[in-house]
Amino acid sequence: MTTGEPGQPRTDRSPWNWLLVVPIVLPLLTFLFNADEPRVLGFPLFYWLQLAFIVVGVTCTTIVYRMTK
C-alpha cells in the first residue's frame, strides 16, 4: 500500500489512533452503569448510557478519520 507517492510506504502509526481505545474501554468500566438511577424519560441509567457510548464511539471514530485522512 502506498500513500499516493511512488516509493513511499503507507504508515498507520498516527497517535490519533489511540483515541479509538476510548470507545472500547469505556463500556468495560461497569462501575459507570451499575445503578438504576438516574432515569431519563423513564429509562434506567444502563439504557441511556449505552446510547451515550454509541455517540462517544462515533465521535471518536470521526475525529480519528478526519485527523488521519
Tell me what you see in this structure:
The protein is an all-alpha fold. The chain has a domain at 41-68. Helix content is 41%, strand content 0%. The chain has helices spanning 22-25, 45-68. It is elongated, with a radius of gyration of 18 Å. The mean pLDDT is 88.
Ordered list of secondary-structure elements with their pairings:
Layout: H1 22-25, H2 45-68
DSSP, total strands? 0
- In percent, how helical is the residue content? 40-55%
Sheet of most strands: none
Give the amount of beta strand, in percent.
Answer: under 5%
State the helix count: 2
- Determine the structural class based on helices, strands and strand pairing: mainly alpha
For the residues shown, what is the average pLDDT?
88
In short:
The chain has a domain at 41-68.
What features would you highlight for this structure?
single chain, mainly alpha
